[in-house]
Amino acid sequence: MQNENCKKKNVKPGKEFNSHFAHCALQFAIAALFFFISSAGAQEQTGHQPGRTPPPVVVLSPDKVQLIGVRTAVAEYRSVDKQIRTVGKIEPDETKLAYVNTKIAGWVKKLFVDYTGKEVVKGQPLLSIYSPDLVTAQEEYLIALRTAQTGTAGVTEIDASRRELIESAKRRLLLWDITEGQIRNLEKTGKPKTEMTIEAPLSGIVLEKMVLDGAYITPGMNLYKIADLSSIWIMADIYEYEVPLVKVGQAARVTLPYQSGESYRATVNYIYPTLDPVSRTLKVRLSMKNPGLMLKPEMFANVEINVSSGARLVIPREAVLDSGTRQIVYVEKKPGTYEMRVVTLGVRGEDYVEVLKGIRKGERVVTSGNFLIDSESQLRTGQ
Question: 84-93+229-309: which CATH number, 2.40.30.170, 3.30.70.100, 3.40.50.2300, 3.40.980.10?
Fold first, then answer.
């Protein structure tokens, strides 16, 4: 009102005019000072300081604290447990996988295991082979034995030559996978066998059968592929940023999409040395028992690798407000007074997250109602 009087009052030039002008200027100065003090008081109430946004401190009344349901937790050192979730493909354990072949050429006389998927035990006959070369080798061994038995003894050089001939013929049979027992039986009967029986090298399931009855086979040709599926491997891929968290020996939980409630325990037993250049993933191998042979090669399984990172300074995950560009936490300085902190986070667990910067041990962080506190802060600052 005084300012309006200064505007409306008609004063003639002179001493009275100068006095009136000074009076009006003083009134304007007082009004400006009052406005500045009022603004500063409003800034102090909201915690806003010139040049700092958003406000670092929000003050709430006890009634409002109770209304929005503010809860807090203490920042503390504890182990951060995390699960790395991925999908893996089941494969046979290569240490319990074998190809069956022969070192001699011949014809398949009879197939004892004649279909894929059949279960076999170690030492079980798989097929028999007729081989003229095998018959010739047995006859040479028998001739060497007869020569040694009927020859004249007493000449050292002759005896050594005969022994060498016998050993040479025997080694040839052994190199063709004729067993010591079969050789002793040959010595006893004196009759060469026209057929050679190939036996299963381990107990397991026939995964592949590459031979037919009556077929001609050559040395090195794969005839069967047999795998012991009582334990299997799971090949899984993890992302590049997860590589430092995975170690050999870590436990994992395996589930199948079609088996509700069933889970299996596996262990990381190998981490491959190179990344896939396209997907930027690293292959990890897990081993596990296969009770009841429920898990089949080429199946897909869900894998959860349990990771424990040791004691770290952590806060509950719900205490962090993530804006996409930064992570914010509200710290309770005293009941009803909350200070905003921008934090730097580390390892994220299932329930807790590591804080690398912005929080000290023992400080209380808001875990419930922090979103409403942040909204109150933005309303007061007009953001």
Answer: 2.40.30.170
